[in-house]
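Troubleshooting entry. The earlier prediction with methionine sulfoxide gave an output that would not parse, so I re-checked the input for stray whitespace and re-submitted. Clean input:
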Amino acid sequence: MTRVDYAQLSQTIAALTDGESDTVALMATITCEVHHSDDRFNWTGFYRVVAPEQLKIGPYQGGHGCLQIPFSRGVCGAAARTGDVQLVADVEAFPGHIACATSTRSELVLPIFDASGDVIAVFDIDSDLPNAFDIEDAKHLSEILSRVFSVK
Ligand code: SME
């Protein structure tokens, strides 16, 4: 079972994204590096805010993801709506969870902000294992994301 080395992951992403400002290039690179860093990560990717209260799929790895998610639905919607990290140990217990893959058991969703503090996207990691994520994962991944994107 491969477990992520966050120091290594952070260094790799910093090196790969150095000097890059294109959002799709950044999201695609982060997705690839994070997804392959840990066997717990079965679906990894971004949903972007494309209209008021509306998320649309961005770069991802794993099985197909739903194309659109309103802010009112799912774990991703909750992260976009509240601006808070969503650490969901059991997706069955989360009201309005969207099951793009029925194998998903737990999720970690992190909001991404622009310089003025508005949510511009969320980063979603889904695991087929129950209770796969902890606060350390949230902390390290938030740091990696805020180094690449503007922060609140
Ligand atoms: N996990 C999300 C839906 C997106 S996917 O599963 C790829 C949610 O409930 O917000």
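This one parsed fine. The chain has a mean pLDDT of 95.
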